[in-house]
Write the structure tokens for this entry.
Amino acid sequence: MSAWWALLAIPAILAIHWFRRALPRRTVSALWLWGERHAAPVSGRRRERLIDRTSLRWELLAALALLLALVDPRWFDRPPARHLVVVLDTRLSLLARRQDGLTVAERLTQDLTTHFATLAPDDRVTVITTGTPPRVLVGPAVPRDQATLGLTTWKTDQTWHDLAPALDLAREVAGPTGSVLLASDRPDPAAAHVGTLLRGEVRPTAGLIAARWRPGDLHLRLAAWGQPQRRELRVTGPAGDLVRRTVDLVPGHPLDVNLPLTTTTPIDIHLDGPDPQSADDHVHLLPPQPRQVRWWCPEPGPLRRALEAQDGARPAPPAEADLVVGPGPRATGAWRITVEPGDAPPTPGPFLARSGHPWLEGIDATGCRWAGGVPLEHVPVEEVLLAAGTTALLREAPDHHLIIHADLTKGTLAEHPAWPALLAQVVANRHAHLPGRDDRNLDPGTVVRLVLPPGAEALVVDDGGILVPGADHAVLLPVLERAGLHTLGIRRNGLPEPWLTISVSPLDARLGDLTPCLSGDHPAPAAPGSTATAGRHPLLVLLAAGLAGLALVASWRAQRREDGP
């Protein structure tokens, strides 16, 4: 619409010719001094009679031609520009090889390139990749050539995930007048009312669908689809093969394999044999690293004996201990246990415990004769964990400090089952608050809790994400969907540093199952309008601009002839 402002050039040209001052009249004394008459008007404020000159006509023609180039009038109907939003499936299932030798992703790339070439030059394309969250790979609303170039950066390296978030984003970007096209290997329930470009094929496959490595034991689950298959199962380490076994797989009957494994180095699991889907035939696992609670207890007695009986706990110097017994020094973040008997008389109960506290889970002191304790009025009420009548028996002071108001040389607490159970709960809860993780082989699509090491200000995920810990110095990490090794970092004193390596498993029963795959085209429903503006016809623009240039040159030459030498 703004191009129509060029019409103001026409009254401007007329005004220039209207307000031109003619040369003043001169009287001469001789005819030979008269010479040829030339009207050479100059600019001025006095309005003169508008003279019909050739230069005026050429200038008006140039203005009209320039207006034609700007507004781009059409002398015939042209289809409006379209906006196509393409959703690219990034799951590993698209690495399955077709009978023509191409992977599904390679065939989709070829067909999308051909499809983009059929679009009009004015059409616009947006490319979105699936995942959590979905991402705009190209666009929004770029020319077809740019969209074709963006296909070269498409990667199918994500584990199994839902396509609905990407399709919802595509519908939002397309709006009511755009169209959506899903490029995948199989139909999806979330793709209702959108176009699909499917290039999957149903082929018999076999693969790993689960792998779990615990200390001393490796559990594997294998499956086949389409037809029975015989495969070679290999477990390898840095020094070579650790296990080699032939397995027979029957569709519909997953096979569980348990293998004793004592190595402490990373391993690779291979399922050898011809397979159109190789993404689930190999998985890399990191060895489990059981974390132990380090404790320090200088005095022998019931406390030390109870700690020595705990699995996953070991003694350590006080400067390194996670759990310190007694009033001595402790490392940063260490928990403390102290025994402060008090002078309350022995009591057989009944005992009242704070509900839901992790240190008291499963603790039953019934039948125990508890010696010692302090009056409840001498203890902050929010610290009391266990009481009997008006006497406080257990309490939690700030900074994870367990205070036991008991005389262990009297009563029956040291011989009662509640005593080792109490210490076991404290050790287990301390283990849950240790930095890191025992099992570093994670399944995608889950959320894990990670406690950061002391001094860490944030967790840095390898895609640039930053997670700030809460009050318990822990973060909730959504497991990444890109299979393989990931290095998690921390930010300490404002500087990043590597911290923990995890392995994201690609294994999923839906990954190797190609029976739902399909090959075919379902065009995107026609949109009622266009989200992109139809562009100018290049030939009309070129002709109009050329005509304007020629008119300006002709006007200049006519002006010179009219003004004379």
